[in-house]
């Protein structure tokens, strides 16, 4: 199954980053905060949203920085994705 977002929404997959402390200890996934860097897997067409023209600034494959608690999490074929509005994306990471 694939997810095709509508309007100004995008589908992202969080980037798993192994985190190491300054002393060299590798933190387990449960000990880390929620990552804020994600990769875009699908982009909606944009268009008119709430009476305003929305142009999509991001594309599939972009790595982005998102708001900490943004979006709605969904699980498709045992993979977790987040669906959020383009306005919840803070920056494109290069």
Poorly predicted segments: none
What distance lies between the first and last C-alpha atoms, to the nearest angstrom? 29 Å
Shape: globular
Computed CA radius of gyration, to the nearest angstrom: 15 Å
Query: What is the helix/strand order?
Result: EEEEEEEE
Please report the total strand number as a whole number: 8
Largest sheet: 6 strands, antiparallel
Strand content of the residues, in percent? 35-45%
Category from helices, strands and their pairing: mainly beta
Strand order of the largest sheet: 6-7-1-2-5-8
**Share of helix among residues?**
under 10%
The DSSP helix count reads 0
The average pLDDT is: 87
The oligomeric status of these chains comes to single chain
Topology readout:
Blueprint: E1 9-14, E2 37-43, E3 47-49, E4 52-54, E5 63-66, E6 72-76, E7 79-85, E8 89-93
Antiparallel strand pairs: 1-2, 1-7, 2-5, 3-4, 5-8, 6-7
Structure description:
The chain is mostly beta strands and 94 residues long. The protein has no helices and eight strands. The strands form two sheets. Strands 6-7-1-2-5-8 form a six-stranded antiparallel beta sheet, with no helix packed on it. The protein has a two-stranded antiparallel sheet with strand order 3-4. Strand 6 and strand 7 (79-85) form a beta hairpin. The chain is globular, with a radius of gyration of 15 Å.
């Amino acid at each position: 199954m694939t997810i095709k977002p509508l309007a100004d929404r995008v589908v992202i997959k969080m980037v798993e980053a192994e985190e190491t402390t300054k002393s060299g200890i590798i933190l387990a996934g449960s000990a880390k905060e929620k990552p804020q860097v994600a990769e875009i897997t699908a982009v909606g067409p944009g268009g008119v949203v709430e009476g305003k023209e929305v142009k999509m600034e991001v594309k599939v494959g972009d790595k982005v920085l998102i708001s900490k608690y943004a979006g709605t999490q969904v699980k498709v074929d045992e993979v977790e994705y987040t669906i959020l509005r383009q306005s919840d994306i803070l920056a494109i990471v290069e």
